[in-house]
Amino acid sequence: MTLTADQILAIPKDQPEKLFSQTDFHAEYKRFMKIWHPDRNGDPSADKVSARIGQLFVSAEKKNFENNWVLDGELIFTASSKKYKFKYLKMHTTDVGKMYIGHKNVAFVFDKLNNDLFTSSHRLIDGIKFQSPKFKEEFERFLPTSSYRKFNADIGSILFMDKTPDVVSLRDLIDFMPDKKLHPKHVAWIVSSTINVLAFLEHSNVCHNAITTESIFVSPKYHSIVMLGGWWFSTKSSDRIVAIPNKLRTIIPKEVLVDKRSDPLYDLYGLKAMAIECLGDPSLIGSKLLMDKNIPKPLIHWLRTPPANSAKKEYTVWTNVLKESFGDRKFFKFTTDISNIYKE
Prior knowledge:
Elements: H1 5-9, H2 25-36, H3 46-65, E1 74-79, E2 82-87, E3 90-93, E4 97-101, E5 105-110, H4 115-127, H5 133-139, E6 148-153, E7 156-162, E8 168-169, H6 170-176, H7 184-203, E9 206-207, E10 216-219, E11 224-227, E12 235-236, H8 254-257, H9 264-278, H10 297-303, H11 311-326
Antiparallel strand pairs: 1-2, 3-4, 4-5, 5-7, 6-7, 8-10, 9-12, 10-11
Helix pairs in contact: 2-3, 7-9, 7-11, 10-11
């Protein structure tokens, strides 16, 4: 490993993993010191660099002895005096901290400055009620109501959401596609599933306030969605909004934002922006779609038209758009192999 003086000095003293490997750090330490010892290296920074290498070596010995070595793809934290290790396949930065996606779980780690959003998120999830066993059977699979855990950990507050292996981040799915977009028929089932859940949340007096490609997870195999992310922005309908995702600020009209009260329109504008992004227009506006002959015109018109003032009304509009765009409903198989979307 060839590193400059600045690169070595930039490594925090408690992160030896960024310089050494756990299995060979003694030999690696000797090799680095042969290069950077002031008696061998005339670089003006040699004193500082050799001192940092020594500090990292001490930290490496300590972590190795305590079995606390952090490997690539591992999230390690302590909560209630218990140590946890979570193996993740991909990490993303979010508006509130970090998101770690594993095989069967997703961990949302909140920066300490956002601890208030962590508290409000699990309170709101716990507060979602199903009016009947039929409602529960229909909608629970789309929501994290029975499949999450919370931790007040040393690295920050953490929400763990369960998922099945076939479920992937919608953002990651788009990025995985060769042309960075989904077929309109796949976007259609994502919209159908999402708007159906939004109608349920509206019935339950809840606004999600963060419908984006980052908060929605999908199963291409089963044509279903799961709302795992963004719950820290959610509120009861008409309650004052504390925050919304940065990307939604650019597409929600100012006259809607100015009230600062939770409204179904936040979710419906987010839904349309999400669909536009899925179809290959990262601007979230939809003007780029006008040039794509593969997208049905009724669908483009719907995406570029302001939504109705409720999810239930928009669901009715969407049902007609779906019929005009694609005819009778048929299962459209997702043929792209996504087995490598998260490489272990």
